[in-house]
Amino acid sequence: MRNRLDQFTRITHALSDPNRIRLLCACLDSERCVCQLVALIDLSNPSISKHLGVLRDAGLLESRKDGRWVHYKTPDNPDPAVLDALSFVRAHAFNDEVIQNDTHTLGHIDSIEPGELARMQREGCCIPILSTPPTPPTTTNQESRL
Questions:
Q1: 3-state secondary structure (DSSP) of residue 34
Q2: How far out from the chain centre does Cα 19 lie?
Q3: % of the chain with per-residue pLDDT over 90
Q4: 3 exposure class (CB count in 10 Å sphere: 0-12, 13-18, 19+)
Q5: CATH number for the domain including 55?
Q6: Rounded distance, CA 85 to CA 91, Å?
């Protein structure tokens, strides 16, 4: 078992990178295949895997292998420090425009079967369309005064 300072250091290190926060937010409410996370964030598969490894090492995510697919989700019974970190991310990160755009994009990604998504990534087809954030809604004059 790790000591508390080591665990705290691993958690804060994991949360110190915007891409890792995006990956964690994508996995907070749903299990995600690595190919889905690669489609969400414009990084290479090895870079995404490295970030996921940091999150897993901190205890913020756990993985399972299903054939050639690796899936990530938050732990079922997290340690209290991990639970606090996940609660903090849930309470604060979803107010960010990038995370809100990711949530919207994940709706599109979720509609594609992982095998098809992996094929699209290998062939370089359609992925830029998936990772393009939606246009934010415009505000009216009255809303901007609030």
A1: helix
A2: 8
A3: 68
A4: exposed
A5: 1.10.10.10
A6: 10
